[in-house]
Amino acid sequence: MWKRKALKKNTRGLLKRSYWRMIAVCFLTAMLTTAYAVSTTFLNLQFSAHPHYTDAAFSTGIPNSEVIEETIRHFLEHTPMIRLLQSGAFDITSLLVDLYSTNFSVFFSSLRAANAFLTESFSLTVFFPLAGLILAVLYQIFVSNLLIIGEKRYFLENRNYRQTTISKVFFLYRLRCIINPAWIMFCRSVFQMLWNLTIVGGIIKHYEYILIPFILAENPKIDRKDAFFLSRQLMQHNKWRYFLLDLSFIGWRALSLLTLGLLDFLYVNPYISGVTAELYAILRRNYVLSRSSRYEHLSDSFLEHVPSEDELLISKALYDDSQGPYTKISYFAPEQYPVFLFSVQPPEKAVRPPLKADRKYAPGACIFLFFAFSFLGWILETSIHLMRDGSLLKNTVLFGPWLPIYGLYGTLALLLLRRFLKKPVQVFVLCTALYSVLEYVFNSVYELITHSALRDYSEYFLNFNGRIYPGGSVAFGLLGCAFLYYLAPRWSEIFMKRQKAVRILINSSLCILFAADIAVSVLPLFQ
């Protein structure tokens, strides 16, 4: 038997111990998935009425309520029911839709594609929303769902291992265990969507399926039927009590709405996630101890039992004798989960020594990374515009497949922030500030030269002269951290393995193409 007060008390203790890490994990999950829609409200809040296109690269673009309104107009245009769109009830519904949903969801991408087919004449542009829908589906299956499982894994380990790292969110990618968890989460979404059509059945199944991400976090190789069976068994006689547990957070939810989601970031998300992890731990422990049906699939005993130093030494010696993938690399981090004892082991080629993010980069590597990050920026923004707006990227200065502001931002971060890399939170804040200054200057110079705005963010809450806004700066802060801690070391390592002549040829070719693009695209602006 479990009690809400005990769950919450244990979680508050964990928050005191690992506050910043728990916040960072939920922040990452909120920014990269559809799990915490309200949390991003204050970052991307728009005041403009009916904005049909936004210059913001990482914002939600057209509000979801407007997408629904457009769809309704297609079918009710010449009927008396069209008056519902002018009612106060619809305004309240629109507000709730925008607060509790995200534009990167499959559902709203489907509506965008449908609206495009209903309004546009048949041409190539009609297929852009369809491409956006496909990208949204793939992102949901292979990124969003897997990161949600990674978040659950972090909270399960953090209960007993106080130095659990934020990177645990990406543990499925490190294990190269992607297809099976992605398939099970996809099935869960489909089944939930179908049950939602019955309304009451949807509520019941929501709580029946709610522990599937935790089960996959413990055993990513579990069979689909076993995962659904175990979640159903664990929640048997607990669905109503879990519902009451959710209701007990209603005060925190209300306060979060009053702060436009800011309180979610600072406390509510890690608090609720920690409580649900505590509940899962209790339910699985009782289930395993009772030797109930298929309990052997809940096989990660080290989530509950923290091995002593002697146990670790003996286990590592036995592991090395078996020539496992971690044999050549020591993973004896203090107060962290012993990854070499996890039931799922990665392929040997996937196990590498930890990256040294604070390395010194050669001038040739910096030049290559400038272009690599510029190209990555073009790929990201093109993909996001396809998913969000169903159109290709519009507001670019150069013709080539690169956005130099990304390259300049990444290069400056490498040169200026290397000394701070041992403090990730500080690096994130500095990356956010660096990009804010860089984009403000970039947009101001462009407007001074051309007398027109390249990117106008004036419809966003807390924008600064329409040139920067919080959501964009925060998104680039995360991107900068990814570049500094993972992408730059990896790409630099690959580039520097090439022969010197090849490196010179690559950089020279890129510089010539870039200079030619500037000559064709930028110089006419001064005339």
UniProtKB/TrEMBL annotation:
<feature type="transmembrane region" description="Helical">
    <location>
        <begin position="399"/>
        <end position="417"/>
    </location>
</feature>
<dbReference type="Pfam" id="PF06161">
    <property type="entry name" value="DUF975"/>
</dbReference>
<feature type="transmembrane region" description="Helical">
    <location>
        <begin position="126"/>
        <end position="150"/>
    </location>
</feature>
<dbReference type="Pfam" id="PF06541">
    <property type="entry name" value="ABC_trans_CmpB"/>
</dbReference>
<feature type="transmembrane region" description="Helical">
    <location>
        <begin position="361"/>
        <end position="379"/>
    </location>
</feature>
<feature type="transmembrane region" description="Helical">
    <location>
        <begin position="171"/>
        <end position="191"/>
    </location>
</feature>
<feature type="transmembrane region" description="Helical">
    <location>
        <begin position="504"/>
        <end position="526"/>
    </location>
</feature>
<protein>
    <submittedName>
        <fullName>DUF975 family protein</fullName>
    </submittedName>
</protein>
<feature type="transmembrane region" description="Helical">
    <location>
        <begin position="424"/>
        <end position="442"/>
    </location>
</feature>
<dbReference type="InterPro" id="IPR010380">
    <property type="entry name" value="DUF975"/>
</dbReference>
<keyword id="KW-0472">Membrane</keyword>
<keyword id="KW-1133">Transmembrane helix</keyword>
<dbReference type="InterPro" id="IPR010540">
    <property type="entry name" value="CmpB_TMEM229"/>
</dbReference>
<feature type="transmembrane region" description="Helical">
    <location>
        <begin position="468"/>
        <end position="488"/>
    </location>
</feature>
<keyword id="KW-0812">Transmembrane</keyword>
